């Protein structure tokens, strides 16, 4: 499968840097599920959110089970995706999403060694498993504008917001 060219990363990097600078970070709850040989990742994105994705290294199916989103893949033209919708993510894909209506987006990843029993593990153990999976399915990326891993910056901001004022995070 042909990988998507990375010529538009700087545009997405600028958007991410601006999002961090203007404190537009919002909590996007994830649900992690496991079956034999599969990792399922579900994200909830509230209406009005602007979201950038990390770069996916694998081809995998996804479904939008609720909501409406405007999506641009690697700064191409915008496409409206409305639930119910099923698609396939190509390796190298990086998305910008504007959420029009509360959205539930789920991805499905074949990962050797996944077990249904993982669903019963404590949250801390699941988080360790998810970090290992992310290292297999998502590319590391340093934002050329901020000089940092924006995903990690974003997680720190969300964690600080939860500590400072938990009632502001849905």
Do you know the CATH topology? Jelly Rolls
User: Looking at the structure, what is the overall shape?
Assistant: globular
Strand tally = 7
Average pLDDT works out at 85
Beta-strand content = 25-35%
What percent of the residues sit in helical stretches (DSSP H or I)? Answer: 25-40%
Gyration radius, to the nearest Å?
16 Å
Number of helices: 3
Count of individual domains? 1
Return the string of H and E elements.
HEEEEEEEHH
Structural class, judged by helices and strands?
alpha+beta
CATH level-1 class: Mainly Beta
Measured distance between first and last alpha carbons: 39 Å
CATH architecture descriptor: Sandwich
CATH superfamily: Jelly Rolls
Largest sheet: 7 strands, antiparallel
Q: In a few lines, what is going on in this structure?
A:
This protein is α+β, with helices and mostly antiparallel strands and 170 residues long. The protein has three helices and seven strands.
